[in-house]
Amino acid sequence: MAGLIRTLRTLIGRGKDEPFIPTFIDEPGKGYRGPTPAKAVANAPAVVDPTVQVHAPVDGTVLALTQVPDPTIAETYFGAGLAVDAESGLIVAPVAGKLHLPFPTLHAFTITTETGIDVLVHIGVDTVHLPQGTFIAEVQDGDDVVVGQPIIRFDFERVCAQVQSLATCVLIQHISDHDVEVRPNAGSLGVFAGDDLFSLEVR
């Protein structure tokens, strides 16, 4: 009876035009609480998922950074993450966010996520020395991109013949500033562009 009275008082006291979202919460000793006003639901704090999923930027075989024949990358000088030994000439966005194309050669780019994490994608080893025009951008600097969106295209066979490795690295920059932990995904070493690669647990 007490629960019914509380529900009637709530209905009488609500705004005429305020819709209700029914909820059924069992509160021991208090009975049925009644429906929750939509206004209260809208003002409730959002639940934030602390995990950021990072996807493969290209088809290929997953490599640890220590397997990349570049000491600056292998020693995580540019950041922590994983690499994919590329098997195609299409590089896609591993995360959603704002795209930055800081190099005229387009051999690397960064994406800043909504949470402010900078993800660097570096295509191959010593590709910085390749002539401009080797890599073709499918997007513009400053664009907002989504996961799996094509970013860079190149002639795979031609570039493969000119460089030591096409290991394409996905690196989380300034990782200590964000206090995140890189967690490689279990599973096959072979991935397609857009597959899960690793996750970031934001602490």
Account of the 3D structure:
The protein is α+β, with helices and mostly antiparallel strands and about 200 residues long. It has 2 domains: about 1-40, no CATH class; about 50-200, Glucose Permease (Domain IIA). It has helices at about 1-15, 40, 70-75, 155-160, 175-180; strands at about 20, 25, 30, 35, 50-55, 60-65, 80-85, 90, 95-100, 110, 120-125, 135, 145, 150-155, 165-170, 180-185, 190, 195-200. The protein starts with a helix and ends with a strand.
Secondary structural class: alpha+beta
Question: Distance between the terminal alpha carbons, to the nearest Å?
Answer: 46 Å
- What is the CA-atom radius of gyration, in angstroms? 24 Å
CATH class call of the largest domain: Mainly Beta
What's the structural blueprint in terms of helices and strands?
Elements lengths: L1 H12 L6 E2 L4 E2 L3 E2 L3 E2 H5 L8 E5 L4 E4 L7 H4 L5 E7 L3 E3 L4 E4 L7 E5 L5 E6 L11 E3 L6 E2 L4 E5 L1 H5 L6 E6 L2 H4 L1 E5 L5 E2 L4 E7 L1
Antiparallel strand pairs: 1-4, 2-3, 5-18, 6-7, 6-17, 7-15, 8-14, 9-10, 9-13, 10-11, 11-15, 12-14, 16-18
Search tags:
Glucose Permease (Domain IIA), globular, three-stranded antiparallel sheet, 203 residues, 5 helices, alpha+beta
